[in-house]
Fold:
Amino acid sequence: MNNENTWLQQQSLADQYAAHTRSLRGAVRQALVTRALLKHLPPAPQSILDIGGGNGRQAVALAAHGHHVIILDPDLDMFKRAVKAWKAAAPNAPVPGGSVDYRHGTGEEARERAGGGFNATLCHGVLMYVPDPEPLLNAMVSCTAPGGLVSVLGKNADALAMRPALEGNVEAALAVLDADSETGRLGVTSRAHRPADIQELLGYAGVDHLAWYGVRTFTDHLGDTAPGEDLDRWCELEWQAGSRTNYRAVARLFHLLGHRKQQS
Structure:
């Protein structure tokens, strides 16, 4: 019975996450992260490991630009969704020749499950669900080739009060003003981190800092609002704001990028 309940819970979370990716907030996140990656990735084809890649939205976007992406995730239902998404997207890919593959496992098992030498390793939206980010960051860096790109997306601890405050919930905003965790819209408690702290851990793991962007400075409090015809303009506004120090500081998510140090 316990196993059945766990499976049902995972199914529910997968459905909720899929719904989130179809919202304006989800679309903005996807567009901004993809834009930053395409800006900093070398030309396709590159080999990419997407740790915690879930339903494959990021993997599909990169594969559509000619890259070869392996998703590492412990949720088999998410992988089925990723395969379906890639089959639908591949015929219309702007750059042919990309691919999406899958490995089953957690981020901490990345080297064992997926191997090493990747031109880029991604870990987006996973840090908030692990008790200690350091083992996960060390594992992802170990999978990255020297000089390869390392990309981390996490929840910004300096901005937790922004969403409830903008929604008009002053008590909830006060409760998380100095917090490092919260219960989000998926009903799961998640952790937040300060970008400087994660940047420091990446430095210890052997990553030279490249850039950091804020993700969802203005649109995070809009709930499940669907994207409209002005999605491109919202994305442009969020991109411009997320590239500026003052605005990115209050964005819901932070996106850190770096290069693994070259071996001496």
About this structure: Residues 177 and 263 are 42 Å apart (CA to CA). The chain is about 40% helix and 20% strand.
